[in-house]
Amino acid sequence: MTHYPAAGERHEPRHLCSTAMGPPTVVGTAAVSRLADDFFFISHTDYGRPRLFGSALSHGLAAALLIELHTIGRITVVGGRVRVRDTTAPQDALLHVVLERLAVEPGYSVREWLYYLADAAYERVAERMRCAGMLTTQVHRRWWRTHTVHRPTDINQAAWPLARVSQHLRHGRRLSGADGPLAGLILHTQMA
Fold first, then answer.
1. Which H/E stretch holds residue 32?
2. pTM of the model
3. What is the pLDDT along the chain (192 residues), one digit of tens a residue?
């Protein structure tokens, strides 16, 4: 049986909006988009309904968060295990929380971290996007069930990640920046 990281909450801020999140992180001269946000938009309809079943969506978002940390040079993968390279806190509050957990619980495989992060990835990415003004949250109550829908505040912004990737692929152009990993997430979660 695989041992997964402990789910201690003592290092995590209660509210991700409490820390400044600012614009996408800049590495060298290229801006690194928030891959998890782009994946969130692609994996939902314009009305906020998921296109994927829960496990694929949450694991895709967990993978996107790890890729974001790798892209900004905070983590690397050696022998299938996640290694923290730099513990400097990222500007983004969610990435800070994830990096702090990775640093406190070293030595786990990518697979183990994906399972662990997938538990809360959906809610945390949605919260980050809501704090950035990208989503509105609506709670629908019907009989004894409650259903939460996260709708994009700007339909064009929500449609842009998929349009950008599909446009590059249709014209046979090379995917650059975060579009390569985004296309990989689309493929591996079987949205394509």
1. none
2. 0.83
3. 344 445 444 344 445 565 444 444 444 333 446 899 999 999 999 888 999 898 999 999 999 999 999 999 999 999 999 999 999 999 999 999 999 999 999 889 999 999 999 999 999 999 999 999 999 998 888 888 888 899 999 999 999 999 999 998 888 888 888 789 999 999 999 886
